[in-house]
Design a protein that fits this description.
- By secondary structure, the chain is an alpha/beta fold.
- The chain has one domain: Alpha-Beta Barrel (TIM Barrel).
- It is 50% helix and 12% strand.
- Strands 1-2-3-4-5-6-7-8 form an 8-stranded parallel β-barrel, surrounded by 9 helices.
- Helix 4 links the parallel strand 1 and strand 2.
């Protein structure tokens, strides 16, 4: 597919000034969603994440066990959507969550830089799935996008998506803090969706600028344009720097305002986070809680 040519079929990106105005409008509205039922939904949309250099079988097992213990300790609440780990720990999580409905997400394909051979990316994704990953988060090749090589960047996503099969959810990380402009974020969003991803995701959390409301507005608008053109619903995931209940409520409101309430399900909205889970739980219960 000639991805760059296909972009002409969609409305252009908003200007930076238009994005800023939309963010200001939605920030004012987000106050209405700073409430316990929204926090409870946001908690259920969290991909509970540990992606550190000191992860170990012992630490990841304990991390996963705490997530599973939530089912018995807080039966009145929906648990997090999944546990997100490096590919080498997928099997570790699988053993810890066995017998529970917990889903497993794995980053893969040269995360977080995406700077390796396509064959290596494909193998890493395949091994993560073989070991039990239900969902895979990969990073679009930012360097190729920045140099305008959209077709090659999107073709990598397409090949990985085709090799994954239909039972695994694919999320493509745009690393919006590196793309910076609304035009590039808009283009990267659309070519990811044209390549077949199920979700577009803001960030790896591994560079200075992670998720921002500005990037979220551009991405959600691109999702809306794509849905209007194709009828296909693609999900949105905010990740990197989402820490407080108020942060979660803001991204919830962005999705609500641009995409509508039908996108406010865990099939179409996720939050990649670690500390946010405890903060959301604290907001729901009205006291400081450190469960996860």
């Amino acid at each position: 597919m000639e991805y760059k040519a296909k972009l002409q079929e969609f409305a252009p990106a908003l200007s930076d000034a238009e994005v800023a105005a939309e963010v200001a409008r939605i920030k004012e509205l987000s106050v209405r969603n700073c409430r316990k039922d929204v926090y409870a939904f946001a908690l259920s949309a969290v991909d509970l994440t540990t992606l550190t250099c000191n992860d170990s079988v012992e630490s990841v097992s304990a991390f996963a066990k705490r997530a599973v213990d939530f089912y018995a300790k807080y039966p009145e609440l929906e648990n997090v959507a999944s546990i997100c780990v490096y590919p080498s720990f997928v099997e570790t999580v699988g053993l810890a969550v066995d017998g529970s409905p917990m889903r497993i997400t794995s980053v893969a394909a040269g995360f977080p830089a995406s700077q390796t051979f396509l064959e290596v990316k494909m193998l890493e994704v395949a091994m993560a799935i073989e070991n039990g990953a239900d969902e895979v988060d990969i990073v679009m090749n930012v360097g190729k996008v920045l140099e305008g090589n959209y077709d090659e960047a999107a073709s990598e996503v397409e090949v990985i998506r085709q090799e994954m099969g239909d039972d695994t959810i694919l999320k493509v990380i745009l690393e919006t803090g590196a793309l910076k402009s609304s035009q590039l974020i808009h283009d990267a969003s659309l070519i990811s969706m044209l390549a077949g991803t199920h979700f577009i995701k803001t960030s790896t959390g591994k560079i200075d600028v992670a998720a921002t409301p500005e990037a979220a507005v551009v991405m959600c608008r691109a999702i809306k344009l794509f849905h209007e053109k194709t009828g296909v619903k693609v999900g949105f995931k905010a990740a990197g720097g989402v820490r407080t209940p108020e942060d979660a409520a803001l991204y919830y409101t962005i999705v609500e305002e641009i995409l509508g309430e039908e996108w406010l399900t865990t099939d179409l909205f996720r939050i990649g986070a670690s500390s946010a889970a405890n903060n959301l739980l604290s907001g729901i219960l009205g006291e400081e809680v450190k469960h996860f």
